Each structure stands twice: as C-alpha cells, then as structure tokens.
Automatic annotation (TrEMBL):
Residues 10-125 form the Tetrahydrofolate dehydrogenase/cyclohydrolase catalytic domain. Its EC number is 1.5.1.5, 3.5.4.9. GO terms for molecular function: methenyltetrahydrofolate cyclohydrolase activity; methylenetetrahydrofolate dehydrogenase (NADP+) activity. Belongs to the tetrahydrofolate dehydrogenase/cyclohydrolase family. Signal peptide: none annotated. This is Bifunctional protein FolD. InterPro entries: Aminoacid_DH-like_N_sf, NAD(P)-bd_dom_sf, THF_DH/CycHdrlase, THF_DH/CycHdrlase_cat_dom, THF_DH/CycHdrlase_CS, THF_DH/CycHdrlase_NAD-bd_dom. The gene is folD. Coiled coil: none annotated. Homodimer. PANTHER family: C-1-TETRAHYDROFOLATE SYNTHASE, CYTOPLASMIC, C-1-TETRAHYDROFOLATE SYNTHASE, CYTOPLASMIC-RELATED. CDD domains: NAD_bind_m-THF_DH_Cyclohyd. Pathway: One-carbon metabolism; tetrahydrofolate interconversion. SUPFAM superfamilies: Aminoacid dehydrogenase-like, N-terminal domain, NAD(P)-binding Rossmann-fold domains.
Length: 286
C-alpha cells in the first residue's frame, strides 16, 4: 500500500479512511457469504469523560464499517468479581469477537487481573500477556493498536525500517514497550527513552524514526530532531479545550521528512487498527 506524502505530513485520517473502505467491503462479504457480523464489546467502568469519549469514537468507527458494537457500561462501584463475571460472559458469547476493557479502571479494581481474564483470542487491544509474549518472540497476532498504527503508517508511506535508528520516548506497556518490540521485529536498532533518561536530546537527535509517547506538551523541539527524520507524535495533552501533542509540530515539520499532526495523526490509525483486529477475530472463527 503506497501512500503519497502531503508536504511531509502523515495524514492519519486519510490512511484510516482507506482502511475503513477496505474493511467495509470485507465485512459486507463476510455477512453475505457466511452470515458473520464482527462484534466488539467495550467495557466502560465509571464516568471518566476522556474514557467515555474514546469509547464513543470507537463505537462510531465500528458503525461506519458494519461492526456490531455494544458498550457494557458498569457502575464505578462494581466489585472485581462482578467485573470478572462480565468479562467471562463476553468470552463465551459467539456474537462477540473482540473485548476491549477501557482503561484506566477505578483504583479499587485490579486492571491486570481483568486484562488477563479476557480470552486471548478476543483480546483485540493486544494487552493480554499471551499476545504480548508472542509479540516479543516476533509472532505478531493481536498487538497493541497504537504502535501497530505507527507501523501501518510507515508501510503506507514506504518508509524502510530495517537498519534504521529508531528512538522511542516513553516506555509504557501500551505504547513504548510494544513499539520497541515491533520495530525490533523489523530489524531497526531501537533505543527506548523515558523520564529517567539523562540526556533525552542525545538520543532523539540521532533518530531516523522517532516515536514520542510521553504525554508532555511539546517535549520535542526542532533542535532535538535529525533533519529528514520520520516523527510520530502519540501524546495527547488537553489544555483549555485544545489538544496538544508531545512534538512542537510547527517547527519540527520544517526539519522532519514526515511528521504526524495532533489531532489527525496517530489517533485515527489506532482506531483503524482496532477495527482490523475485530474483523480478523471474527474471520478466525469462520
Ligand atoms: P504513560 O503515562 O503510561 O507513560 C508515559 C511515558 O513517558 C513513561 O515511560 C515516562 O517515563 C515517559 N515520560 C514522561 N515524561 C517524560 C519526559 N519529560 N521525558 C522523557 N520521557 C518522559 O503514558 P502512555 O499510556 O504510554 O501514553 C503516552 C501519551 O500518549 C499520553 O499522552 C496518552 O494520552 C497518549 N496516547 C495516545 C494514543 C492515541 O491513540 N493517540 C494512544 C495511547 C496513548
């Protein structure tokens, strides 16, 4: 899939639109040929506004391509046992192929145990240790959607990964660590930086591919980026109703060969990857 670079800006919305068009067709034939409608269940515990928004965006995307989506809205006071019962029930349902537990959970709940209760075959977020373990040994099945979206964009824009110096800022389980594994699986030389890294710039300045997922507004300035680098900005910071990324986009765009905007970059590709995973999960049981 070869894309067209528009003035050095990675157009996440355009990539996701193309993926959605392909999935819409695929899902229509799955329905017509085998009577299968891919199904996603999201689990939303409590009333966190950001989580509510993310779940809404995922449901809207499912509607656009023909995936059945339902939201298990659970009260913030739910017990761990009740949450595990909901997951267990979804694990057994034939019409649900993907289960997504929206994080963060209220403090009294054990997110790790809940994640591990999801059937790995329905773990479309790719957070289950079984799927994470497979990713580490180079067997990529369900992998976390955000780093998978970055790989998708690299492929879309025909960026070679092999032999490149890749630097990731952020070492979370959902973005930084799986991103590192996915780039290593494609033979990049990978450095992972984080809040304890002594001299961040000394790493970022050498990156051919730079992925930033720290959640710190404009952490990465123009002088920290190598000329011609490909830069992915995963971060989201909201300030007075405006969304900012981790990269000083205006200035870095002059220096990078490709860079993602925020919003409209990594976010839509993350959702497109989720849709792909749900469709794949449904095909597996065909
Ligand atoms: P996290 O809080 O779990 O991890 C943040 C990471 O950044 C940690 O490794 C931390 O050490 C590092 N970090 C923090 N400050 C730093 C600094 N000053 N210098 C260097 N490293 C620093 O976050 P996460 O869940 O990985 O998410 C990161 C950001 O990406 C957040 O803003 C989040 O909202 C966003 N996000 C966006 C998407 C999307 O689809 N666009 C998906 C997931 C996360």
């Amino acid at each position: 899939m070869a894309g067209e670079a528009k003035q050095g800006i990675i157009d996440g919305r355009a990539i996701s639109k193309q993926i959605e068009a392909e999935l819409t067709e695929e899902i229509a034939s799955m329905k017509a040929d085998a009577g299968i409608v891919p199904g996603l269940a999201t689990i939303l515990v409590g009333q966190d506004p950001a989580s509510q928004l993310y779940v809404r965006l995922k449901h809207k995307a499912c509607d656009r391509v023909g995936i059945y989506a339902e939201d298990q809205k659970l009260d913030a006071s739910i017990t761990q046992e009740e949450l595990l019962d909901v997951i267990e029930n979804l694990n057994t349902r034939a019409d649900i192929h993907g289960i997504l537990l929206q994080l963060p959970l209220p403090q009294h709940l054990d997110a790790k145990e809940a994640m591990q209760a999801i059937d790995p075959a329905k773990d479309v977020d790719g957070f289950h240790p079984y799927n994470m373990g497979n990713l580490m040994i180079g067997d990529e099945g369900f992998v976390p959607c955000t780093p998978a979206g970055v790989i998708l964009a690299l492929e879309y824009y025909d960026v070679d990964i092999e032999g490149k110096d890749a630097v990731i800022v952020g070492h979370s389980n959902v973005v930084g660590k799986p991103m590192a594994a996915m780039l290593l699986n494609r033979n990049a030389t990978v450095a992972v930086c984080h809040v304890y890294t002594k001299d961040l710039k000394s790493y970022t300045i050498d990156a051919d591919i730079l992925v930033v997922a720290a959640g710190v507004k404009h952490l990465i300035k123009e002088d920290m980026v190598k000329k011609g680098a490909v830069v992915f900005d995963v971060g989201i910071t909201e300030e007075e109703g405006k969304i900012y990324g981790d990269v000083d986009f205006e200035n870095v765009a002059n220096k990078a060969s490709l860079v993602t905007p925020v919003p409209g970059g990594v976010g839509p590709m993350t959702i497109a990857t989720l849709l792909t995973h749900v469709t794949f999960a449904a095909k597996e049981i065909e």
